[in-house]
Amino acid sequence: MEALTIHEAAETTGWTPRMLRYIERIGLIEPARTESGYRQYGAGELQRLCTLRELLAEHEIGLGDVAFALRLRRDEALSGAVDSWLEAEPQRPETVSADEWLRWEQEKHARIIAALTTNETMETAA
Amino acid sequence: MEALTIHEAAETTGWTPRMLRYIERIGLIEPARTESGYRQYGAGELQRLCTLRELLAEHEIGLGDVAFALRLRRDEALSGAVDSWLEAEPQRPETVSADEWLRWEQEKHARIIAALTTNETMETAA
DNA sequence: CCAACCTTGACACAGCTTTGATAAGGTTGA
DNA sequence: TCAACCTTATCAAAGCTGTGTCAAGGTTGG
Fold it and tell me: Which pLDDT belongs to residue A89?
């Protein structure tokens, strides 16, 4: 089996031609082209278009989400940055003990100043 | 240093209180609460709020994208499905050779029927 | 007890995403 | 040559995101 045109591929997969162009524009499925520029959808593309619909439906995600996942996989710097941000997550301080809280509550202003200073450190350090 | 209120944390990190609530709602940073329900932002949260701004700015992504990355990391089934969909990507058939194309071009209708049959197989197989 | 916080919830609005429709023009096969 | 495709580009509508603001009400410290 060989390549189908965009309308044939649309009928086959349940997308509209419009959406196939959109899916291409966001980088998810980029079919080959004939010399004159017509899109050619092969068996692989048809497969992926079908499973793409299932993926979106079954997990309640959008095309943009899949596009972002693709970007994550292609941009090593991005995925590293996101991962390391997510990594730091469980670092949550326990609920404050009552007296410790009181001690600090006494000078709210000093706390904010301290926080601001810490923040500058954070910004330059990061 | 101990916990800050939402307004203090906002001033410290450059977000607005509104946005801190939004960031919490989409699951990115969920501060502890006092017994009466006030949010308490600790050093860890302040850090993460600052680096979150950098992350968004430096990589041109949105809060929703980070939220999706978090979802990917928490939902193993989801990340597996997305990954395996993306994995199949490079499978693109080469541009069709001229005579092979001609042979197929001769009965367009048969091609579509064949594709539809293949599609049914695909759907049940996936 | 009051000012100054905090909470949730709702309305609103600009801007982006997703999708359709339509126009102007090129390709192709009978 | 002509019908039936294809292409890109544009306008448009519906919905979601990110953000502000306001209201009604609880908490807290002086």
Answer: 74
Give me the B residues in range 15-44 that sit within 7 A (CB) of strand D.
16, 18-19, 22, 26, 34-38
Calculate ∠ Cα B121-B124-B126, nearest 5°. 100
A93 pLDDT higher than 50: no
Domains parsed from chain B with CATH numbers: 6-78 (1.10.1660.10), 92-125 (no CATH)
Predicted confidence (pLDDT) per residue in A105-120, tens digit: 444 445 454 554 444 4
Q: What is the mean pLDDT of residues B35-56?
A: 96
> Residue A83 CA to D28 C1' — how many Å?
40
B50 touches strand D (CB under 7 A): no
For A31, A41, A54, B34, the CA distances from A24, given in Å and listed in that order, are 8, 11, 18, 49
Element (H, E) at B10: helix B6-13
Tell which residue, A50, A46, A15, has the closest CA to residue B93. Answer: A46
- Residue among A5, A12, A83 with most chain B CBs within 10 A, to mutate: A12
Inter-chain contact A122–B3, Cβ cutoff 8 Å?
no
Query: In Å, what is the separation between the CA of A37 and the C1' of C26?
Result: 10
Which nucleotide in the DNA or RNA is closest to residue B5, CA to C1'? C6
Specify the pTM: 0.78
> Residue A22 CA to C19 C1' — how many Å?
9
Each residue's pLDDT tens digit, B53-80: 999 999 999 999 999 999 999 999 999 9
Three-state DSSP class for A26? coil
pLDDT given at position B110: 52
